[in-house]
Amino acid sequence: MTFDSKNRYRNIKDAHADELENIEKIVNSDHWRQKFHIMPKTGLLNDPNGLAYFNGKYHIFFQWFPFGPVHGLKHWAHYVSEDMVSWYEDKRILIPEEWYESHGAFSGSAVIKDNQLYLMYTGNVRTKDNRRKSYQCLARLEEKKIVKDPDNPVINSIPDGFTNEFRDPKIFQKDGSFYLVIGGQKENMTGSIAVYQSKDLHNWNFIGELKTGLENFGYMWECPDYFELNDTGILLFCPQGLKPNKDCFNNIYQSGYIAGDKLNLDTLEFRHSDFTELDRGFDFYAPQTFEKDGRRLMIGWMGLPEIEYPSEKNFWVHCLTIPRELKLMNNRLVQSPASELKKLRKEKETFSENLHKQKIKLPISGTVYELLAEFSDFSGDFGLELRTGPGDEKTVLWYDYKNSKIILDRTNSGEKFGLDYGSLRMVHFIAPVIKFHIFMDSSSVEIFINDGKETFTARIFPGENSSGISVFSTGTAKINLSKWNLA
Ligand code: FRU
């Protein structure tokens, strides 16, 4: 099926009888369907949107085009959970039907006001001559459906000096006001963030541009998110147009943060440290955070735009990451898998050995599991081969002892994709004990290094039977390993 401008901009209400059910049959025959990650029933998922804990339930929305694995007319799909582990489809989805969202209900966020859940999002419009227009819109979750505000678009212009690449309102509350950070592009083709203030969610004032020390840092900033942890202000955003720099910025677009003093909302000055990538892997973008009981939780899109992924032939593509808790350590963010995920653990298997210049294929195997491997007393390279299978298939996570680097190698992970951006990712890392904490699903791997000081996130597309696990070392290394199958 090819998608021209006509079938790319259909909304779900225009689906023919059985059309989506038939697509679902193809999708569900795919062995790369994930077991514990949020993914689209059919079609394409991208950014997580509207994360919130509301009336005893977690809510997550995501950018969704139901009819196929392309960036078509974006809806907001909706899932709810009581524990962030089991997610159920919620039929109250955001369907773009109004003039101000004719080409998609783009990304945005949620806020609770007067015990109601409100959503702020970008209405995306393409004019006849294909120019973009961008409107900021308000909606409310009601008992039976999502209701769009009659005053939409609540922000219908772009501030002076910005282009129409202007989107992704993230809302936060401070001192009795609501604030929005909106990602954008300046007329001089640099990325930037606009800040708005409101008392009532309806009337918004543009209060200025966020003043960072990053004057010329890519041509567009998408998906900003501002929050405070302890007394530190943190701004997440996704700059586009950065050049690769050694081990950094090797994906098509980046996702990272700057941390510093709390944002001064009078002057919009933000004093901060250098930009740090949130993830060292291949497939991580457009994360969003929310707060629950003092915990700051983050979920990202496990994918990137403009790259073809192997599952597209089965009419679906992409998924979200697991929820991760963020904490600050020496002014840097550390990420740990939300503790709720322990609920997924089934039987535990362990393995310990003093390795000496050898590779051992473990009696333990699997395709959907959590694995914790601790290496100590090492005098050479060491690591793990995961999802090993016929044809020397393997995903290798290893420590390069001489160069003190952790390396994720997906050169032989299975079906190849995204090769324009290379098949190795690495980060400089020094510690006497190296811990790999791994969440493996049918077609992804998320790796937390030493309690989340670094993370690597990647999609992989191995053969159905590639389930082996090996450990190796070129010198000595002591390994302690635990593995739980996940259900
Ligand atoms: C990021 C993004 C956002 C936009 C959305 C559209 O992946 O480009 O800037 O709102 O995706 O789906």
TrEMBL record:
Protein name per Swiss-Prot or TrEMBL: Sucrose-6-phosphate hydrolase
Gene Ontology MF: a single term: beta-fructofuranosidase activity
GO process annotations (BP): sucrose metabolic process
Domain called Glycosyl hydrolase family 32 C-terminal: residue spans: 340-480
One Pfam family recorded for the sequence: Glyco_hydro_32N
NCBIfam families: scrB_fam
Organism: Sebaldella termitidis (strain ATCC 33386 / NCTC 11300)
UniProt keyword annotation of Lipoprotein present: no
Function of the protein: Enables the bacterium to metabolize sucrose as a sole carbon source.
Similarity comment text for this entry: Belongs to the glycosyl hydrolase 32 family.
This protein's GO CC annotations: cytoplasm
Subcellular location, record wording: Cytoplasm
Alphabetized UniProt keyword annotations: Carbohydrate metabolism, Cytoplasm, Glycosidase, Hydrolase
E.C. number: 3.2.1.26
